[in-house]
Design a protein that fits this description.
The complex is a heterodimer of chains A (about 270) and B (about 290). By secondary structure, chain A is of the alpha/beta class. Chain A has eleven helices and ten strands. Chain B has a two-stranded antiparallel ribbon with strand order 1-2. Classes of the chains: A alpha/beta (about 270), B mainly alpha (about 290).
Chain lengths: ~270, ~290
């Protein structure tokens, strides 16, 4: 039961499929990922589930370059990106929203968003950015940056009202909105989300999950969603992967996983 | 009353120099959580470069510009060659490296330039200004000193606040992880931070040396006062560095003027202790506990 590639929605760009093959990573003498292979389908949501210490966060950290994989390949659009540093990963189209503490509290909302565009200068040419092909052509003029900011404010209206406020003043839901908006400004093909629902009120959590769904359906983003809350994650995901002690123990359609009672009891605790 | 005015004005002038040194320390601390003990040594060295250029070209301003440029180059070069390898190591490694660098620079200065006291020229007249018949206790050069540091500080503050490069530096200082994930080449940004610190340190060296003479250890005291000013300001805050420098400069000027100059070092220590007792993070720090 290794990696079954998810059937992508019609029109999805196959170059946005993220293939992780035999990834080994760890900290010092500890192996946190032991030969993990996952295929995250283009324009689909892949939920990565598992208990604490299963290796979920390490997986995202390895894919975004925050830790260097010891072995294995990270394939996006035909290129093996394993071993690149985070600055290069975001330029290659992988944006990582880490767990908690994602906003830079000392900066204003608008400054946080501008940080999201720091990868633009000198970015690799990406002729095919799904649903935004028009943007990719014009290099990085001031007008284009302003337009991208406006677009972010249009999508996230609560941020527009607070653009001059320090990010420290935002509520939990607004912070999550801000970090996702910032990641989107990098114009990624792949979005890695680490526990986006953590610490949010149930209603706000629902809004964030709705947003994740729309990013995949409407914008064609490939999303890898790490969640402690397996029930919520499987409800919106297309595909699910269960990690245990650094290995993939299940990989299947999200509905199949959600109805597999034995697996749920054993690894997911619900 | 006249005395009080004189002490205040000369306190402000020296305070601006402490502020410059403090600012250079803060720039590096914010980015790397490292206290650069070699900052004074670097400033001493660039001031020697300035004096050699002035001696050979006969132009003060040529020496001035070369010193600032040397500060930039020295700061960037040290960061890339000897600081960067210490960065993923325990914090003490970086501290030891900067102390070693200080010793090295002071030794090299002795070898290249000699250990004797040398007088350093001033850009403008050093005779005291007067309003009517009242002497102000400061000279044209003192006014230039205060103005140069002030202009540099304001230019830097504006660059930090309003330019993309400034935003990049702030983002890298506040949250290096997010900065890297957003595509900011943090290692490069830190090099720029060291270069700017080198520039400001070099400025402080050129400005203070006409009143202290120049010798391999001549910046040691200035460094200690600059460090005190930076800690008073909170180590994290450029504004705090400047305010801390001014407070310390004025306080030490009163002490030196009214009580005698041999007490200034003791009072500097006293000010430091009192500030740290009342506000352990410094006057301008956000209320967060940091490891030191």
């Amino acid at each position: 039961m290794s990696s079954a590639a998810e059937a992508a929605p019609a029109g999805a760009d196959e170059s946005s499929t993220l293939m992780i093959e035999g990834l080994v990573a760890g900290y010092g003498g500890v192996i946190a990922l032991d030969g993990v292979s996952i295929s995250a389908g283009a324009a689909a949501i892949t939920a990565v589930l598992g208990a604490n210490g299963a290796g979920k966060t390490t997986l995202l950290r390895a894919v975004s370059g925050m830790i260097r994989p010891r072995r294995g390949r990270i394939l996006l659009g035909g290129a093996d990106l394993a071993g690149r540093n985070p600055e290069q990963m975001v330029r290659a189209g992988i944006a990582h929203v880490p767990e908690g503490q994602g906003v830079i509290a000392e900066l204003t909302v608008e400054e946080n968003l501008r940080v999201g565009m720091m990868s633009w200068r000198g970015a690799l040419r990406r002729p095919s950015v799904p649903a935004r092909a028009g943007h990719a052509r014009a290099a990085n003029s001031r007008a284009e940056r302003a337009a991208a900011l406006d677009e972010a404010y249009e999508r996230f209206k609560p941020l527009a009202d607070r653009r001059r406020k320090l990010a420290a003043t935002l509520s939990g839901g607004e912070r999550q909105m801000l970090v996702i908006a910032r990641a989107l400004l990098a114009r990624p093909r792949v979005l890695l989300l680490d526990e986006p629902s953590l610490g949010l009120a149930p209603r706000v959590m629902t809004q964030v999950m709705d947003l994740v769904v729309r990013l995949s359906r409407d914008n064609g983003l490939t999303i890898v969603l790490v969640e402690q809350n397996a029930r919520v994650a499987l409800a919106i995901a297309d595909h699910g992967v269960v990690l245990n002690l650094g290995r993939v123990v299940a990989s299947a359609d999200a509905r199949t996983l959600a109805t597999d009672v034995a697996l749920r009891h054993h690894y997911l605790g619900f | 009353m006249v005395e009080f005015l004189q002490f205040t004005l000369s306190g402000i002038v020296f305070g601006m120099i402490y502020a410059a040194v403090a600012l250079s320390l803060v720039l590096i601390w914010r980015g790397t959580r490292l206290l650069n003990y070699a900052q004074g040594g670097m400033a001493m060295f660039t001031t020697y470069v300035a004096i050699e250029v002035i001696y050979r070209t006969g132009s003060y301003w040529a020496g001035f510009v070369v010193a600032l440029a040397a500060g930039i180059v020295l700061g960037a070069a040290f960061q890339v060659t000897i600081i960067r390898p210490t960065m993923n190591k325990p914090p003490l490694n970086g501290v030891i490296v900067t102390i070693g660098l200080l010793t090295l620079l002071e030794g090299l200065a002795g070898i290249f330039f000699g250990g004797q006291y040398r007088s350093f020229p001033a850009a403008f007249s050093v005779t005291g200004l007067k309003i009517g018949t009242t002497p102000l206790g400061v000279s044209r050069f003192d006014v230039f000193t205060a103005a140069a540091v002030l202009v540099t500080t304001l230019a830097l503050a504006a660059a930090f606040k309003y330019t993309t490069a400034g935003l990049r530096m702030r983002a890298a200082a506040f949250n290096a992880t997010i900065a890297r994930l957003s595509g900011i080449r943090v290692a490069r940004v830190l090099t720029v931070g060291w270069a700017l610190a080198g520039l400001i340190g070099a400025l402080a060296g050129v400005l203070v040396s006409p009143s202290t003479f120049l010798y391999p250890n001549s910046m040691d005291t200035i460094f200690v006062f600059g460090f005190t000013a930076a800690v008073i300001g909170g180590l994290d805050s450029p504004v705090g560095a400047v305010v801390g420098g001014l407070l310390l400069g004025i306080a030490l000027s009163y002490v030196g003027g009214y009580l005698g100059s041999d007490l200034t070092a003791v009072v500097a220590l006293g000010v430091l202790v009192v500030v740290l007792m009342i506000r352990p993070g410094g006057l301008f720090s956000a209320a967060r506990v940091r490891r030191v």
